[in-house]
Design goal:
The complex is a heterodimer of chains A (100) and B (163). With 100 residues, chain A is α+β, with helices and mostly antiparallel strands. Chain A has one domain: Alpha-Beta Plaits (2-Layer Sandwich). In chain A, 29% of the residues lie in helices and 34% in strands. Chain A contains 2 helices and 5 strands, in the order E-H-E-E-H-E-E. Chain A has a 5-stranded antiparallel β-sheet. The longest helix of chain A has 15 residues. The radius of gyration of chain A is 13 Å and the shape is globular. The model of chain A has no long low-confidence stretch (mean pLDDT 91). Chain B has 2 domains: 82 residues, no CATH class; 51 residues. Chain B contains 10 helices and 2 strands; from the N terminus they run ββαααααααααα. In chain B, helix 2 runs antiparallel to helix 5. Chain B has 163 residues and is mostly helical. In chain B, strands 1-2 form a two-stranded antiparallel sheet. The mean pLDDT of chain B is 88. The chains are: A alpha+beta (100), B mainly alpha (163). Chains A and B meet through helix 1, strand 2 and helix 2 of A and helix 2, helix 4, helix 5 and helix 6 of B.
Chain lengths: 100, 163
């Protein structure tokens, strides 16, 4: 059974407010394509959570239930750090988590 | 005859070596690219074009296809041109290494024996680091400097390389 996970990746670094270098986006999307059979998006969305006022790129990633924890780990330990964020928004089956 | 495409990351692909199917897709994608569409719209476009390919091969094979990497690279060029993302330099790479491998800049600086304010100035482009110093720092964390040709984001170069 597949689960759809929605993530928001802010378009700027949280600390410097600079745009991201292209390498981060390429690496993230390559990873999603390689490990999780691809993704939908990204779609530009307004930021409005946890003090995040900048726009974000919204990705929807389909995966099996047993891949979810590993994916969340990837968001915490790689995406959050490389994209210079305090938290990463992640929604699974309508439940929102802010991964620190 | 070879038709070489070089990505912003200096990966080199021989476009004439692609299969007929992949060349046809690339032609369509490149035509779209020439219209300078929004970079996210362009991304959706080429991802739809490779939809059939992805059904028949693993994700690992897909992301290593020259077609995939060239399409990704064209997207990055559009994103940079449109000001949505930026180019990358050694400072970004160094900052990423530090963020991924160390709990803090302090911890990194302690290990490689440099002053933290000097590192901050370097990463913020307020100070330049000598090659000797950079080499010394990188060798301590398992990296080295490599020289690569300068690659701009000019579409003319892309056009020359493709068709």
């Amino acid at each position: 059974m597949k689960v759809e996970v929605t993530i928001l990746v802010p378009t700027v670094e949280d600390d410097t407010k600079r745009k991201h270098p292209y390498t981060r986006i390429e690496d993230l999307e390559k990873y999603l394509d390689e490990k999780y059979e691809g993704f939908q998006g990204p779609m530009l969305t307004p930021g409005s959570y946890k003090g995040q006022s900048e726009e974000s790129w919204k990705y929807k990633v389909a995966m099996s239930e047993n891949q979810v924890e590993q994916f969340k780990d990837f968001l915490r330990k790689y995406v959050r750090i490389i994209f210079h964020q305090k938290v990463i928004y992640c929604a699974i089956k309508g439940e929102v988590e802010f991964l620190e | 005859m070879q038709n070489i495409y070089k990505t912003l990351r200096n990966e080199i692909y021989d476009v004439s070596g692609l299969s007929k199917e992949h060349q046809e897709i690339l032609k369509k994608v490149y035509k779209k690219f020439e219209d300078n569409p929004d970079w996210l719209e362009f991304k959706n476009f080429w991802r739809a074009q490779i939809g059939e390919i992805r059904k028949s091969i693993s994700g690992k094979l897909l992301v290593n296809l020259p077609l995939y990497r060239i399409c990704q690279d064209l997207t990055s060029r559009l994103g940079i041109q449109q000001g949505e993302i930026r180019t990358s330099d050694y400072r970004d790479q160094l900052a990423d290494i530090i963020r991924l491998k160390y709990h803090s800049r302090y911890e990194f600086c302690k290990e490689v024996k440099i002053d933290e304010s000097y590192l901050s100035k370097t990463l913020n482009k307020d100070s330049n680091i000598s090659i000797k110093k950079l080499e010394s720092i990188l060798s301590k964390v398992g990296y080295e400097i490599r020289l690569v040709p300068i690659e701009g984001n000019s579409t003319k170069k892309v056009s020359d390389a493709l068709f």
